[in-house]
# Entry
Amino acid sequence: MTTTSTTEAPSASGHLADPDVNYLNNEYGIKSWLLSLDHKRIGLLYLIMTTVFFVVGGIGAALIRIELMTPGGDLLEADTYNKMFTMHGVAMIFFFLIPSVPAVIGNFVLPIMIGAKDVAFPKLNLLSWYCYMVGGGLATFAIIAGGIDTGWTFYTPYSTTYANGYVSVALFGVFINGFSGILTGVNFMTTVHKMRAPGMTWFRLPLFIWAQYATSLIMILGTPVVAITLLLVVLERVFHIGIFDPALGGDPILFQHLFWFYSHPAVYIMIVPGFGVMSEVIACFSRKRIFGYSFVAFSSLAIAVLGFIVWGHHMFTTGQSIYAGMVFSFLTFLIAVPTAVKIFNWTATLYRGSVSMESPMLYAMGFMGLFLIGGLTGLFLSTMATDIHLHDTYFVVAHFHYVMVGGMVMAYLCGLHFWWPKMTGRMYSEVMAKTSAVLIFMGFNLTFFPQFVLGYLGMPRRYHVYPDEFQILHVASTAGATVLGIGYLVLFICLVSSLINGAKAGPNPWGAKGLEWMIESPPTPHNFHETPVVTFEAYAYEEEDTLLPVPGDGQTTGAVSH
Amino acid sequence: MDSTVEHSRPDVGGDHGDHHDGPHIAPMRMYVAIVSLLFLMTAITVCAAFVELGAFGTPVALAIAVFKASIVVLFFMHVRYNTPLMWVFAGAGFFWLLIMFSLTMQDYMTRDWETPVPIEFLDLL
Amino acid sequence: MSSHSENPALQHHFDDLKQQYEAANMGMWAFLAQEIMFFGGLFSGYAVYRYKYLAAFIEGSNHLPIFWGALNTVVLIASSFTVAMAVRAAQLGRAKSLFNWIISTMVLGVAFLGIKSIEYADKYHHGLIPGANFTYDSPMAGQLKIFFSFYFVMTGMHALHMIIGIGLMIWLIPKIRRGAFTAEYYSPIENFGLYWHFVDIVWIFLFPLLYLIGREPWIQL
# Structure
């Protein structure tokens, strides 16, 4: 474990020169993983568990899509169907999407990118993983024991009065899981402020760090609100305290206010770190400095702040005041501005760049297109008049899947492919990776584009039966989901087989810039042999003099000589 | 914000200027003064509750509470002597709370307003 | 880098104690921002229902004893003072004094919880606890139940934070006796102090919002 190490003492430099010691093999045994304080190992712990929950959520999705192939309820009962889409939503949102980029990729590369040995509070980092595990365990127990049928939003009064008895357990699990996000947020924010290497000024930070910083802001200020709200629902269920009970004068819509105060910004917890990944990958594979660095950096913060003032657009068709709806509608349009700034800047970065289409870049291109569609269809939903028609239809489902899966999951996979050689020290098969990227892109579009049409024609969400005329579109969607599933399978095989027979990755297989590419792959337990001194800007792809000595034999200092 | 001020690495030559020796240690009489003021404000807020202030009752009680909280934050929690960045950290939570309050209340406070479309028009539809 | 071998309190991934201190301080403030929003959810709910059901909230508030509430405010402010003095003693490296101030804080914290439990017991006797024995008879009983739900959830969450704070002191005391804190390293004491002050601030808002609504003499019940 890192804390027991005394390698900081200058006299231990002989030990550090050993090129074969890295964070994966410096200690062995299950305990060295489960009690590890090393941010890189904790990142891998998160990687394994988020993948497990991705599979759980994926099973739910598969059953939903199979059921919807026919207009009647052939495979699943109505109740079972409700439980399936709840399981899909809870597992995917709370236990896969929210922790994936921040806790997996962020944990792994954030301290390295800023030249630190670890995050500011390694013990809290480990604690956050355990919060995640306990929360995930409780939610899984609720799913297995009796299932939950409230939908992932737990709307009152259904969740407080009518739904079955395992809702409290699931809510408590999500409550505990919230602390995992809060601790990660506190940790990353402090780390970015206080642990940067000498010379690593704010405007030399990679944009991934800016994105993570903005995400931490949302995690710290948003998550506690949903925590207390879900606790109130548990109290309402167990003690019938009446806060959300209309029979006593309680207002169920208050739950929606408090819930969406977190859960709308939570959308940005999912997507903003993905934006950060995009900036890294697009700059690297265009061999150009990112266009308008400071605009991209501040647009992350702008999204984080604006994200908190738009939540009422989820409630246009509830009893919310129509005047409040107008305010929320207007504010929602504002958020398109910083988002568009990012898309335009990435496009401008590509312009006249030396673009090469390695697999991370393929995912990045997929992200750009899909997220654009997801974002633009959001404008239909933030307009009150059109939202009345589209609310709670498959149009909404398609919209947020374009943002969450087409945007966020593509960005996550993009980042995973980009930093995989750094994490594992191995290269994956480029052919397989590209195949899976193409399959996922095509499968995704075939799955969700028909749902825009379905929603526009009036197919509501969360029904397991539907009129016959919708069948052709549903069959197309299910066929697409099959292709998508095969794509994920190819991806999984590709990455796992790289661990077995992948070629050794050098320290910098992509020729990328940034501190993480100046150390060994996989990194040594303390990342750097000595604290790097940063004398260069981020994304210095076009400047000859910052071409760095590539470390090959563990002798590198990771610092730029000047 | 200027990253070099808040950051401190001894091996960065001349990159940061605020070498003060340890934290600011306030004199004991300051703490006594603050706690006395807090007791006084508690007495005032209880008395004010029994005075007929009409619509101003709640704002007065809240103003006193905000004042008490502010001096706790500034003096007991040492924000007064901390860096500007920590002022931002201390204020951020309250600012976000204000966002949540105002946007939630703008819903409840406008629910009883008349509908924007006159009711005659609805009949025509 | 020489300080690495000098102070055992310095963790491996920090360069020096100053960096470690600043990180701990900032982390604590970030955590407190989180706490503000945690209670903020309750305060928002409170604001909504107070706006909707002011009459019921006035009636409910008049069932709360001002004397005990005010006394608890005084007790908690006093404990805020003692913990501020504890931090000052730690800054000056006075271990004995630090120990005494922490013990005083703990005594005051327990006193607060004692008074709170007197109030809770009183509510139980009057049948005013939603979920346990709410037997209030009034046309506004439902709305009053909501008021008392907020009263118990808010003060209960606050009391839970007090209990956690007392637990933290129990954890700190052996360390203090061992001499783990010096004028160079006292972050845990300072952070505990920040936490305790925050709990005090929550009460500073809870007291007028719960106990002091509609106490004007002209209000007829």
